[in-house]
Amino acid sequence: MTQPTPMTMGQQFGRRSWAEPWKIKMVEPIKMTDRPGRERAIRDAGYNTFLLRSEDVYIDLLTDSGTSAMSDRQWAGMMLGDEAYAGSRNFYHLEEAVQNYYGYKYLVPTHQGRGAEHLISRALIKEGDVIPGNMYFTTTRLHQELAGGRFVDVIIDEAHDPVSLHPFKGNVDLDKLEALIKEVGAEKIPYVSLAGTVNMAGGQPVSMANVAALRALCDRHGIRLYLDATRMAENAWFIQQREEGYGDKSVAAIVKEFCTYTDGAWMSAKKDHLVNIGGWLAMNHADLFEAASNLVVVYEGLHTYGGMAGRDMEALAIGIGEALQDDHMTSRIGQVLYLGELLTDWGIPIVQPVGGHAIFLDAKAIYAHVPQDRFPAQTLAAQLYLDSGIRAMERGVVSAGRDPVTGDHRYPKLELVRLTIPRRVYTQAHMDVVAEAVKAVYDEREKVQGLRMVFEPQYLRFFQARFEPV
Ligand code: F0G
């Protein structure tokens, strides 16, 4: 099948500008920082941007998780919270929204994505099982490991190459999966763990053709297929823009079609769904519904709130409808592409093509003189903060953690810094400031020597590890 190479926003829309389908009704002042203050703050934070205080940050691109601006409709929904312990009206709104937009039969609410990952991992994985997926995500893989499983990456090779222009770098390599099934046996594989888009690959999408073929392969071996739907709406927008036959279908229709190839999904609603907290697990099989409904009351809350307040479920139910609108998605990803185009024009190495939720700076290419065990991406994130008070996130060797068997660092091919764009929060002027800051840090790249780790927590070390300059 021939697929077009991804186009820039300019190529896609000609010379006409696009703008957000909303106007601003309320603003939140942010602190303008100065160099001495930033030097103090990053030292106190152990050169880890997760340990900075938010009040010391000027433009916060740490994550797109829980950082969206809610609409006036969502805030109005917050006033309609039915805070009953059991059977809240808001739960039924949420259930209906998930059924309508994603098409799954059963819903189990959770406090956020990893709550749902915990439930599905515990319910389906046995000691010694193998879970194939299209690149790891930190919390997803950890829950699979804690349940006794081993994650195996079966994403296409192009995903590990920051300069490959493949339009669907999130795709599963079906040959790799087939070989794995042959090696370990289908009975050792409780499900395939598919994410759309793929966060750690740079927010890269999976094509409809790939999920359809994956489904057929899973069916031949009697293996289930579950989706990490955290950024599936963004994935659908890329299918609409890039895949033959989808140009005139809506994002909502594409999401629904994609989900028909899967047996269920888990969701961090803090991303696509435009809320500050929330998540869910949804499925078509009654056995998983029963197991998850039972586990949710142990770890999250009753099966009709799962750790969320009624008002949060209402804002989420409304957010789902807003998230799946084409105009919203065009401006959301359009803003990310705008920043990506500025950096590309200035020759700064970033993961190409630009993904849905973030720009990923290629720290390995920028700091080619810093070895990976001196944490180039961690170093770059710290330098960016020092330069301008912009907070980004390391997505390299620190995030990859240690191999549970050998205890060594896992050295991922991608050593990246993520500039994650919150939804409906920053303006185009903020993006200009960010691009100029990245350029300033890039121009000073020779002066930097890297970091050494002086404190390392056991789980998900990137959140709390501390560093010092070498
Ligand atoms: N799956 C994906 C693809 C994610 O990106 C995240 C969170 C989760 C699951 C877990 O969801 O945070 O609600 O428990 N990603 C955040 C990020 C933390 O910054 O990318 P959660």
Protein model, in words:
The protein has 470 residues and is α/β, with parallel strands linked by helices. The chain folds into 2 domains: 6-60 and 326-469, Aspartate Aminotransferase, domain 1 (Alpha-Beta Complex); 72-323, Aspartate Aminotransferase, domain 2 (3-Layer(aba) Sandwich), CATH 3.40.640.10. Helices cover 40% and strands 13% of the residues. The chain contains 17 helices and 14 strands. The chain has helices at 9-13, 35-44, 72-78, 89-102, 113-124, 138-146, 174-184, 208-221, 232-242, 251-260, 286-299, 310-323, 326-345, 363-366, 376-388, 397-400, 428-443; strands at residues 59-60, 106-110, 130-133, 150-153, 191-195, 224-228, 264-268, 279-283, 358-362, 390-391, 393-395, 416-420, 451-455, 466-469. The strands form 5 sheets. The protein has a 5-stranded mixed β-sheet, sandwiched between helices. Strands 9-12-11 form a 3-stranded antiparallel β-sheet. The longest helix has 20 residues, at 326-345. The chain is globular. The protein starts with 8 loop residues before the first helix and ends with a strand. The model has no long low-confidence stretch (mean pLDDT 96). The site of ligand F0G has 15 residues, from helix 5 and helix 6.
